[in-house]
Amino acid sequence: MILVAMQRIDEKLDRVLQDQQQQQQQQQQQQQQQQQQQQQQQLGSEQLLPSITALRKEAYLAAMPDPMNVDPAVTGDLPPPQSQKKHQRPGTAELLDESDLRGALSVFSWPAVQTLLVDGGPTNDLKAILAEGSAWLLRHEMLNAPGVLSCDSFLARSNMHVIRGDKEQSRTVFPSLTAALMDEYTNAFFGSYNLIYPVLDRQDFVNGALPAVKRHGFAEGCLESLLALLVFALGSLACEGAQGKPIAKGSGVRGGTADRPPALCIFNEARSRTGFVSGSCTVEYVQAMVLMALYYESCSKHIEHWRLTMIASEAVKVVLRIDRDWDSHSIDMIRRAYWTCNVIESWYYLDLNLPRSDGVSFQDFIALPDFDDHLDFGDEPSIEKKYPYSFLSMISLRRHIHRASDELYAREPSHPPPLNRAPIPANSQPLPAGRTRSSDQPLIIAELSRQLDVWRALLPPELRWDDNNRAAFPPNPAHAHIDILLAQLRCRYYYARFMILRPYLYTALHHAHAHQTLPPDISTGAIDCIDAMLQWPIAYSPVCDKKRLIPNMFAWTQSFCSFLLVLRAVEANEGLRAAVEEKVGLERVGESVRVMEAWIGDLRGVDGVAGWAWGLLRGRTV
């Protein structure tokens, strides 16, 4: 039965790849025809048109106003409109696609937010972002983030020769990495990083790699040794990140320094061995790349995190094509690895608009992991119930977020919308960013909200929470950071809710009349959207006090930056501010603002994205 199932999967993979090749060939032919038509129309012009179709370009130019143009009919007493002009990337003719504005940048095209930024001073950043989108932020991150991790620090070692089977091997022993420390770091790893991204099986590791390196030491070109070193590095990082000395007074970044994170010596030992196994096409190689990516993310190396995840995802594709000697547990581990890569890629795609790998096309026929009888926390059944369900819930929630993004914000290819919108009558429906007006928009928002409510209602009891007490967590068992697991799930839920209801907030924020003139559904939707931005548990203690253990920090930082900008715009809107005071409470808003600002301020010295956001919110060009 397993063989038959694998054959069906292989056939589906072949069909997907064939379809992709055919589509690419068709696209290439169309592009060649369009280029020929454009060249004929230009009559020898040296400047080629932008790399989009001619029809789309004409429609785009016809509809697109100046992104810096603030319409006083929309925003009341704002400055008069500026002259129309096309924003282009420096040195190219490429036009900004509004869908490129992701994460914190998604609100930069809002006139109310633009007014705040222009009045605050960082107009150079605003112009560059509206011209380049996420590409500007990524370049800024690479240029201004702290330097690469030091590679001059290693563990003291001694060499030994061992005989395994009929072969003699040269292996390395690290005297400072004792058997007791290996056990401690193993427990710490499986109670932190592997809780959130369960790419390893505890029993497999404890019964396989761990006793092997204890007894025989570490070998070059050995995936077993590489995985063990990465587990120990992340385990040590988890210990220091939760209990170590803060890098600055009151900081939630603990252990090591901004330049030298904890366990760097162990991690460098792992990095030095990576090249010897880089051609491997096994699940173990995929796992190693994911673990290495997690270490980089804990040090706020976001680009490295994304790049290694892409490498892991590409390796999964190879494993699916060439490996067939699978039992049920092996299949489950492949599923864990695949969906871990898929979820991480989704974060970067949704928040930074970084491309996803081709492995995304497999998601319709790669089953979810079932977390078979290999239990990671057999003596803690409550943990066993939480972490697999949490991972599966995150996968499901990711689909809701993508659906909301596609339905509400993805641009119709042949009808690019303007960045600034016309005034909306009091009896009209919301106009989401990125889509033209449609009578079915309220139905889409209502259906997306209903699906999100169903998702939450189906959560097991161990994962449920009270909206009025979002940052409350049960006590953590020893070596298990359940609070981070739960905080991430809750915050991503509120992010999805914000995404779905954001069109209502845009309408209310830019309405020309008093807030009370809005239809009840728009008014209620705007208030619910504001509520979804408040009191995210990831920014509250005890979770925020161990930031090195929190995954995907760039996403939280970007979300907080966009929320703070929107909340400032809400405060400047008299009618909407009164409604928030009545139905939400200014005290809740003020508390949320303080913790979000504290989060960004804490990370600004170690994270380039946070440093940029901090300067932006302080009214400085960075």
Automatic annotation (TrEMBL):
<dbReference type="GO" id="GO:0003677">
    <property type="term" value="F:DNA binding"/>
</dbReference>
<protein>
    <recommendedName>
        <fullName>Xylanolytic transcriptional activator regulatory domain-containing protein</fullName>
    </recommendedName>
</protein>
<dbReference type="InterPro" id="IPR053181">
    <property type="entry name" value="EcdB-like_regulator"/>
</dbReference>
<dbReference type="GO" id="GO:0006351">
    <property type="term" value="P:DNA-templated transcription"/>
</dbReference>
<dbReference type="GO" id="GO:0008270">
    <property type="term" value="F:zinc ion binding"/>
</dbReference>
<feature type="domain" description="Xylanolytic transcriptional activator regulatory">
    <location>
        <begin position="189"/>
        <end position="456"/>
    </location>
</feature>
<feature type="coiled-coil region">
    <location>
        <begin position="6"/>
        <end position="42"/>
    </location>
</feature>
<dbReference type="InterPro" id="IPR007219">
    <property type="entry name" value="XnlR_reg_dom"/>
</dbReference>
<dbReference type="Pfam" id="PF04082">
    <property type="entry name" value="Fungal_trans"/>
</dbReference>
<keyword id="KW-0539">Nucleus</keyword>
<feature type="region of interest" description="Disordered">
    <location>
        <begin position="412"/>
        <end position="437"/>
    </location>
</feature>
<keyword id="KW-0175">Coiled coil</keyword>
<feature type="region of interest" description="Disordered">
    <location>
        <begin position="66"/>
        <end position="94"/>
    </location>
</feature>
